[in-house]
Amino acid sequence: MSPPPSDLSDFSSFFALATGHPPRPFQKRLAAEPDWPEILRVPTGAGKTAAVGLAWLWRRLAADREMRRRTPRRLVYVLPMRALVEQVSGRFREWIKALGDAGWGPLPAVEVLMGGEHASRWELEPERDQVLVGTQDMILSAALNRSYASNRFRWPIYFGLLNNDALWVLDEVQLMGPSLPASAQLDAFRRAYGTYGPTASIWMSATVRAEWMQTVDRPAPQRIFELSADDLDDAVLHRTLAATKTVAELKRVKASSREYPGALARLVLELHRPGTRTLVILNTVSRAQAVYVALRELVMHGLDSGKEARPGTVLLHSRFRPRDRVQHMERAQGEAGASAGGLIVVSTQVLEAGVDLSAATLVTELAPWASIVQRLGRCNRYGEEEEASVYWIDLPDRMSAPYEAVELADARRLLGGLEGRSASPLHLPDPEAPPAVSDVLRKRDLWDLFDTAPDLSGNETDVGRFIRETTGRDLFVAWRQWPGQVPDPAWDEVATEELCKAPLQDVRELLRARRRVAVWDILERRWRALRANDPLFPGQILVFDTAAGGYDSDLGWKPESTAPVEPVKPSIERAPEAIGSDGATWEGVWQTLAEHAQESAQEMRALLQALDIAELRQVEQDLELAARCHDLGKAHPVFQEAMLDGLPDEERKTRSTQLWAKRPGRSSRGYRYPHFRHELASLLGLLAHQGGPDGPALSDLALYLVLSHHGKARLGVRSYPGERPLDGGAGEDRVLGVASGDRLPEVDLGAGVRVPPTLLDLEPLAVGLGASGPSWLERSLSLLEQYGPFRLAFLEALVRAADARASRIAQARQVYGGGPHG
After folding, report:
1. Is 461 helix (H, G, I), strand (E, B) or coil?
2. Distance between CA 400 and CA 397 in Å, rounded?
3. Would you tell me how many other CB atoms lie within 10 Å of the CB of residue 547?
4. Most C-beta atoms within 10 A of its C-beta, which of 118, 545, 638, 702?
5. Segment 765-800, tens digit of pLDDT
6. Distance CA 140, CA 463 (A)
7. Across the strands, what pairs with 359?
């Protein structure tokens, strides 16, 4: 780490350099705390994100060595709504850029965790300081080893990195539902089962209460950080906390009326003040869309109560594709006074959670009190308006969804008590009711989730119950042009920019209407039409035919729409992964097994040195041996046959004298056995020499890391449909393309490590005690108990990072020249 260009050991100077203004008193106090608080209870608009974010940056970059050692290198920032993700990640990028412009470095990377395939591979840099920002859906699912809308074979990497050496910051927790107790349980499990590197969790909100985080495995938080009297003396903060916003019930419109959307739209136009921003918050996407359409029609036809200038209108909710969502948010956050008519923003709960947006007029449906407090924070947010108004609409019990009617009763009473008075943050009561009790994540759930082997029926373990209420569970939809009645089986992987969240129930209803939908089949290695018996589950990716409709760039997800959808061209051209595919093998250059083994071991040593985690020294040798030996199974004839497939005869003859690990191009027909996995051949080849005089001696831990280095075989190992006996080996079983009796030739793994010719045997995969001792499943489960799920997955992530980085170095060397690390 380079020295600071000036004296930045003082937090106030560091904060001012990053933001352009000095910190508030509470932000300075937080940075000086010896330990992270468990709860940060600060009113909305006071600067919670800057307080935690700059404190973390300071501790990682400018504090003394001991403080850096105690501060996790990954900041995992969890948000309840997608609308906040770009805002929070954007602020971190601005702060880090300011530090970089001043000569500071190396600086943390900022990554947004989204579904779909994207260019960034943040998981390949586990030693780097990183800010990881995402919604509770994306981050909690990944932390539970079921990462939504992502490559299933990378799940263990995300699981390992998010649960080790990580500071979790959960913002606006009153909106998180089941994710709140799930995050508390994960925090308890990290303490109980151990991690590599420090971990901590901070729950933040203006209304958070300690008992909300008390679970069966975790006591209520004790370290609570709040504003002090000195903080309230800050003039800017006091103006924010004392901002006037007068409350009134809007009785001129009835939510139960069929004319509700149109009537509310007309009333909003009456209440809107030209040259200002009006914010309308509805509790459901469908009502927000209906009110927005009615409002848009009124403005387009000039029916805006005779006002001279027409206001702009924009719709915000969680069900837009990324590009449309960003454009809508930019319009919503634009300068309302830029046009004489001002701006009317129609939204759902996506604006509750800390979005940097302020309105002179707020119209909101009744919601739980914690949500109302957040909505109030979007009105006269910084005290910039002398007069600001809040209007609330009562809802009958039958319209309470997505909330329970009982949750609205408390808010109804409290809002009634504020009638005609100001709802400034200083004078708002705390919520009286805790979040509703939900499913609680237990040890057995966590242990079950560690196993990522696919269910042959297509079902997946549903972690949605730990993340959102039943009514809020989503999958992800993309739209592509179908070449005919069936999808293109060779489509590339779905990219992030193509995806739109969609409710499970909506998709089920569309399927009844026989709309054409495709899924990726990891066993058949192709895109195929969704079958009637295929299960649907949260986080799944489906591809609709563009002709099927279901989306509008102005309205977002609209299942009743039958207008063709404009497809988004994906930025990534990469085939999806299947059980029997090895995309990275064919993306590089010609590289022998010995070369790749040597460079993988070198990358592992460099990685461990950069991580500098004391506890990893105990497994350093296991990691280096796993990195060196992981591709031994590529010496298998099935793999080498694929390596040479499609080459001209002369080149094939020349190259057949060596054992290859990587090549450019792609095999014309894949593997002879469709589910072949070289890592299983690696495991069996190394097991054959375990305890013997020849070959490398690997521990069970190193063997596990060899087997798991692609995420396709980890704990138990089994065969898949369509596997056949070896040619000429009648009656022999074949598991992942490998059979007893298969042979590996002598293999050079570099640095003097050679493995003699080996006869493979599937016997260790059988259940129970065999001739070689306990089965592989029993041995791997013992490792899980010994190391715990988080540490074991973290070690997997390190081996996979070393493997991938070694491949990238080989490619770079061919392009730019130089040595292995040149």
Report:
1. coil
2. 5
3. 14
4. 702
5. 887 666 667 889 999 999 999 999 999 999 999 999
6. 9
7. 379
Distance CA 684, CA 633 (A): 8
H/E element, 241 = helix 235-241
* pLDDT higher than 50, residue 368: yes
Q: Which residue matches tokens 């063709």?
A: 564
Residue 684 CA to residue 765 CA, distance in Å, equals 9
* Residue 46 neighbours by CB under 8 Å, 6+ apart: 24, 26, 227, 237, 240, 241
d(CA 573, CA 589): 18
Distance CA 660, CA 635 (A): 8
Q: Which long-range contacts (CB under 8 A, 24 or more apart) does 327-332 make?
A: 329/83, 329/86, 332/357
User: Higher pLDDT residue, 128 or 504?
Assistant: 128
Q: By the 8 A CB rule, do 132 and 75 touch?
A: yes
Q: Tell me the sheet residues that pair with 315.
A: 346
Q: Kindly state the tokens that stand for 475.
A: 């999958």
Tell me which amino acid residue 365 is. Answer: E
- Tell me how far apart the alpha carbons of residues 573 and 806 are, in angstroms, rounded to a whole number: 22
Angle (deg, nearest 10), helices 620-629 and 776-816: 70
Contact 315, 292 (CB under 8 A): yes
Structure tokens that stand for 412 in this block: 């109804």
Task: Round to whole Å and give the CA distance between 793 and 811.
Answer: 27
* CA geometry: angle 582, 587, 591, nearest 5 deg: 90
539: nearest Cα among 586, 514, 502: 502
List Cα–Cα distances, 137 to 53, 185, 253, 466, 472, in angstroms.
21, 16, 35, 10, 10
> For the segment 487-533, what is each residue's pLDDT rounded down to a tens digit?
988 898 899 899 999 998 888 888 877 678 999 998 888 899 988 88
Peptide bond into 402 cis (omega under 30): yes
Helices 322-332 and 83-101 cross at an angle (nearest 10°) of 80
Nearest to 527, CA basis, from 494, 491, 551, 578: 491
**pLDDT at position 670:** 78
Total-model pTM? 0.90
Which of 278, 288, 255, 436 is closest to 357 using CA atoms? Answer: 278
Nearest to 682 by CA among 641, 612, 632, 646: 632
Q: Name the percent of the chain lying above pLDDT 70.
A: 91
* pLDDT at residue 455 greater than cutoff 90: no
- Give the type of residue at 389: S
| Token pair belonging to 676 | 């072949």
- Close Cβ partners of 250 (under 8 Å, ≥ 6 residues apart): 267, 363, 391, 392, 393
Token representation of residue 221? 């938080």
- Count Cβ neighbours within 10 Å for each residue of 271-298 and write b for 16 or more, e otherwise: bbbbbbbbbbbbbbbbbbbbbbbbbbeb
- Angstrom CA distances, 100 to 5, 97, 107, 130, 689, stand at 10, 5, 7, 15, 52
CA distances from residue 186 to 143, 183, 674 in whole angstroms, order as listed: 8, 5, 38
